[in-house]
Records
---
Amino acid sequence: MSKFKRPSGRKMDEPRKIEAEVGVIARADGSARFKIGDTEALAAVYGPRELHPRFLQDPKKGILRCNYNMLPYAGDGSRVRPGPSRRSKEISMVTEKALTPVLDLSQFPNTVVDVFIELPQTNAGSRCAGICAAAMALADAGIIMKDMISSVAVGYVEGNLVVDLDGPEEHMGENESPDIPLAMIPSTEEITLLQMDGIVSKKQLLEALEFAKPVLKKISDVQKQAIKAKYELGERK
Amino acid sequence: MGKLLAKEREVVVPGQIISEGMDYLPSTGTYRLKEQVIVNRLGILNVDGKVLKVTPLSGRYLPKEGDTVIGKVEDILMSGWRMDINSPYSAVLPLREASFDFIKKGADLSKYFALDDYAVVKITSVTTQNLVDLSAKGQGLRRLRGGRVIKVDCNKVPRIIGKQGSMVKMINDATGCRITVGQNGVVWFMGEPQMESAAFKAIRLIEQEAHTQGLTDRVKALLDELTKDYKGGKDE
């Protein structure tokens, strides 16, 4: 086929190296760290707990509240103004929508589950890393969820379909590479996050989705294994 | 023929497929998706014949009628007390359930339970919206004075208590501490300072290793180690 080679030398369907662990934040009800390449996300879950202000309460079920935050020194260091921004608000919202479909908070009406996602270091794919970390942290917190959520981006770098774009790849080509962050429920293959930056045809988009599915399933195995590892440590003692 | 894809007493995680085929039945902590049974919360798998059940390893306390819990007085109301029961929901201890004494209208309620007091109470009712009512009338229900209060994961409470209270009894025998364990994961214990600290360490050990086997022996070893230089207090 084409002679295209990725700058990092990875195969087309090869994500960056993944590190995952849970229970990294001692006082949280659940927590996780998910690192993919240079992008690292920490997630802490608190709750279910009482929700204030009260008008936000839902008497039918508990709600999920996510907060995505990139630390000022993350990325290339250009995000020097700390705190919320238009971008972080958007990502918090899509994270919430990506995770909600698997959660069952009907036992906890009027409450909130808070998820805080912090990114000490990023190099593209931060919302996906954040979602992966948040899903693991929610499981660690003992929230009822019908499946894990796994997330990764796919995109076209100089016309070639690749998975998990890193920083340099995102900026290749004349018009930058179209990149599509995805999140999926592995058991049903339902997509819970679908965003796109760039222009691709409908055919290309559908191809990209199919291309990402096996990768997402592999990531979900890594996530599940990481949660189990927390309890295996105790057994070895 | 159905196939079991996980072992009994294995740690299972949400999304894990634990059986294929229609021979196994989902129970708490699991659900069926077509031919598969899938786990929906982190816990330990129990296989009871054909029934697959997950005993949770984490999660907040959900109030249940009949549970004995340890609460902390959060607020004093017109005719009762609002208590924090280490759960997403607070609970109300109404005046008539607080004491066998007659409490006169307009009496100073802080004489019975003051703010920040801890008390052993029983959950008398829970509504669908998780509004909780308490009672302090009954055997073993009382205001707690002195001692220490710690919070543990409420899912580990059965382990801390042990079979027919064996684990609590063991700590009690070794340290001489009086111990009360609330179903909500609040533990109160009182004894001599050094023994309290030994009991504290033992409880934390149980909490951390609740999912493992042979825990009783390890707790016993820890207690022997911690109490070996200090035999004075309890036998006198």
---
Amino acid sequence: MPAVRNIRLCTKDCLCLYVCPTGATDTETGQIDAAKCLEGCRACVDACPSHAISLLPKTNPPPQPKADAVRAALRALAVGKMEQALQADAAARAAKDPVVRQLAAALSASNRRMAEDLIREAGFLLPQSRDVIDVLQETGRREAAAGSPTDELDRLAVLLDPDRIRPV
Amino acid sequence: MPMQPMDPDGHSLRELDDRTLAALFANLAKGTEQQHREEETGLLQQLADRFRERAAAASPVGPAGIAGLADGIRADLEAGIPSARALAVATADRGALRALAWCEKTSTILKSILQRYERDGDGFLRDARVYVCDICGFVYVGDAPPDVCPVCKVPKLKILEIARR
């Protein structure tokens, strides 16, 4: 994977332009041109005085093991927070007063962030992991049995397969 | 909540309901976005939307409106979070402890906002802005959010204003 620039950290010192052997760092979008970036070069990463450039790893180690009881407990909490978010959404739709609608929208967003964080910590930290693939495949089987489309689930099960060698 | 059946090699927790899938796919989309993987991000966002809509359609609306949220928060603070923390401590799971610490702080803030809303009505909101931390869910009611989120310590550019409309 190529080097990537966090444009919010970039202080425009432009040393990355001097050290890049292929001109990949000089683009109109502010991002580094992945097609020109040399695998493993990292000259721009080391030259950048504001630490705005990093290398995306090509592969990741498998996630740390996690106890089933912890996963189940975090998941139960996540379900509760999602349910709260849905209830807040319903309250927002039903509210006539914009102030109440705003509060309900904030409660929904807050609960959603908590649910997402809890489910992530329940064994789904890394997108490219066996547990994610298992969920995609299991959900795909269930959706297919119910006659629902599974195109996205099928495609993701390929794209996120940790054993797949990914092109740069 | 009943425990899901799990297989012996730890590849359990496969069967997730629509609500959980919505949260999972939304979070994975954020992860792949950070990885600059655009196709994955688009697909995961589509799935998150689809499962969220389906969950919303299946979720019976409580009669109490916003006030109805207080019971769930109390249950999390009094039972769900402490029991999950005990399990995380027993297995020295620092990541789970981190998530539970954030969840407890944010839930406590939501609880106090709901208590105030119940007690005083929406007067404290009328002339204030409302912000939610996009990382941990911290809610701020006031003029300008803090420079750093007091719960997760992310810089304020990730603390987003909720518009009044």
---
Amino acid sequence: MSSKAAQSEQEKSQSKEVETEEQKIQKREEPKIEILPLEKSIVDKITTKFGDKVTLVYAKPKRIKFNITTEDVVDFARFLHDEIKFDQPISVTGIDYPKDNIIEVVYHIGCCTVPEYRSSVFAFALRLPRDSPNTLTLISVYSGVEYHERETFEMLGVIFKGHPNLQRLLLPEDWADIPPLRKDFGIKGR
Amino acid sequence: MGKSTEELYSEAEKKLRQEHGRAVKQIREELKTTKQKADSSLHLKKGSKRDLTDFPKDMQVEESEEGRILTINVGPQHPGSGHFRLVVQVDGDIIVGVDPDPGYVHRGEEKMCEYRNWIQNIPHLERPMIADSCGILYPFCLACEEIANIEVPQRAKYIRVIMSEINKCIFELYWLGIYGIFLGHSTMFMWPMGDRELLIDLAEMATGARVTHAYFVPGGVRNDLPDSFKDRAIRQLDYFKHRLDQYKDIFYTNPLFLDRTEGVGILSANDAINLGVTGPVLRASGVEHDIRKVEPYDVYDQLDFQVHTMKTGDTYARAYIPYLEMYESINIIKQCLEKIPIGPVRTKLGPNPRGPAGESFKRVEAGRGEVAYYVVSDGTPKPYRVKISPPSFRQIPAMSRLLKGARLADMPAIYWSLNYWPVEADR
């Protein structure tokens, strides 16, 4: 009995150690940073305007990310451009999450005009179903996203409705495979 | 046999003339009818395409209501465009439509990143921009450091700034040389290419490689600077500054250069911001936006330098801003060489470094503008997604905006002023 008890104690202690390591990793994953006043002012403006339609992902120093829905995307971008003055499109990224059956389209928008926001980058993400990833184009707000959206279209198969010229950009014209940046497109030999 | 040879000759001549006259008449009539036919078809079928040649449809003459519009392919083999194709529509010599077509050197860098770990990703990420290999790699290292929470030694931060500024000059000299030759100024091709060698020697002294250094790693730089680096760098930079002064005399005040660039291809500040252009193109339109100043990384907040802007927004301004920035680079490198502390240059990482799940968006100011990386990690040693947003790709919308309405002869001047690098845009 005593030996068993000793074993169980050992196991317990081991499991405790494992737990503590996990806890450490978790702590590193989510360091609780209080939102700084500058970021908080931007977040407040958006939450008062859009309420529950948008969800805050994070508000780290100089980096803010929101999740929004396809219906609001043009209104949201218009509000961001006209009211908060984030006016410079930086990039459009598509990310494939086959486990969640989702394709995420992330717009990164910078600011050139308001001095206190110039160091910040605002990101908003659309989580689209992987079977029919459709969204609306933002060319009417940020004309520079035209080529970024074309790239996302060919690389991940996201369709931007209302885009004037949604054609292949970087891939060859006779490309006859699935969009290459989806996770189920494998590289030969890897 | 009564006819003499002279008569025979004259008869033959008469006959020949008659035949010739008939033939000429016939040809003239045929021409007239074909012309009438062509005119009538032109008149009737306004706005329709006519197959005049065996060329593909893109390259055929198209008749529209405004007149005859010719579609020309510039590139991808044209020496003036690099590996890049511009479908240009001209009416006379005025450009009326531009369709940029990148992708001839697409290598799938972003897909490759998903199959390699953080360290293995370093050498191939430099390939899109070998003329400025530190600038394109810098934000990747910064993003890795943020995700995995790696501290960088102070000395390594200074070395990174020095090397990225040297690389910036190397790129800008290369660009200036090609800009010179495409505006017909052969001396401006020879001089920067020669002076670039001296800076490449300097980079080789520190890193061991001439152009693709693979020098920056997450956690610092690969190796320390050699002892004699400071003296040689200062000597080299003094000479380089002296040469820059000469560039102004031979190129930037040259009346031919001024004629071809002043007032050509004007981009307003609002357009520049909305199109998302960066770097010298943005600053030439009067927007004072430099990542080194607005969001300082590493030690840029401890250095004293100036951000140059010009208000005209024309091709001359876009060509002149990089020139002024080379002076600032010299200034920054000299300050760093004075301030650099002694210590380690690299934080040792484990064999297969990894961070927790998370994401990071980092940007730096390279020779052509803002290079941004969006790195998403899922906690495994390989990045889940790496998005590169290179400055050249962001310059593409400005290209079609500026070329519309310009003369065909201005195309090289406008195109090269955008600091466009096809390999970097295609990735």
